[in-house]
Amino acid sequence: MKMWFRVIIDACIVVIALTIIFGWRAIMPVRMPAYLTPSDMGLPYENITLLTQDGKKLAAWFIYSEKGKGTIICLHGYPANKSDILPVVSFLYPDFSLLLFDFRAHGESEGKITYFGLKEFMDVKAGIDFLNSREETKKSKIGIWGYSLGGAVGIIASAKYKDIDALVTDSAFANFPEMITYYYKKLGPLKYIVSSLSRLLGRYVLGSDFIQNSPEYFIDKISSPILIIHSKEDDFVPFEHAERLFNKAPQPKELWSVEGTHTGLDHAYTDEYQDTVKKFFKEHFSTMESGG
Predict the structure, then answer these.
(1) For the domain with range 40-175+214-289, which CATH number is right: 3.30.565.10, 3.40.50.1820, 3.40.50.720, 2.170.16.10?
(2) Exposure pattern of 74-90 as b/e (b: 16+ CB <10 Å)?
(3) Most CB contacts within 10 A, which of 19, 44, 103, 274?
(4) Global pTM?
């Protein structure tokens, strides 16, 4: 009896230790180096620094287009940086100006901990404030294109700040606690225990429950048009997350199913994708300008 009791205690210790190790690694992601700059793609740009309301300095690129019909704030996924999405979103120039930045605790930005959306909406606000402070952009439309975590943060930011005129999310999750459980799916039934412990760890370290960064609880407060893009073959964020977001989103809204896995964003390099996204931003920016 004592032996079985000791086995159970040891197993609990191992599970708790692994949860702490993996959880700590998750909230302190390895910083990926920038492998590409706009100049490598022949794009004019400024290296700028954004300042968040809680004092974090974010490394950013501002790619200004004189004939652009607005500015698109482009939000990368996890764990990544602005250079990872630069080739993906470059098609938006010169129809639009672009603002790309590294989220806190990513790339060259300040911060040691990622909050998975609990604070990253303030990073987006820093970008909005920058655009509103520039003479050439302060009266122009602002859109958001976000991928994965960036898409989720885009939804939260759009619900909080009415400066966003149009939103495109690609591969965004609806519920973050569910994503934690899905992340540990290979552990079988044990995934529920580990994910619950991870949620408790997150609440202790980050000071908030992960339910507070779940886009499905924010999307109904968005007043801007939204295009939700997701693959039914997504191997990390199940397609039903996109369906739930779509069902809760107010009009005008669109849900577009594409092909491909979660990583790589290969679908974003197709003509159909680029034409669809540009058309979405152009149509809704022009509708607002005409007062429609």
Answers:
(1) 3.40.50.1820
(2) bbbbbbbbbbbbbebbb
(3) 103
(4) 0.92
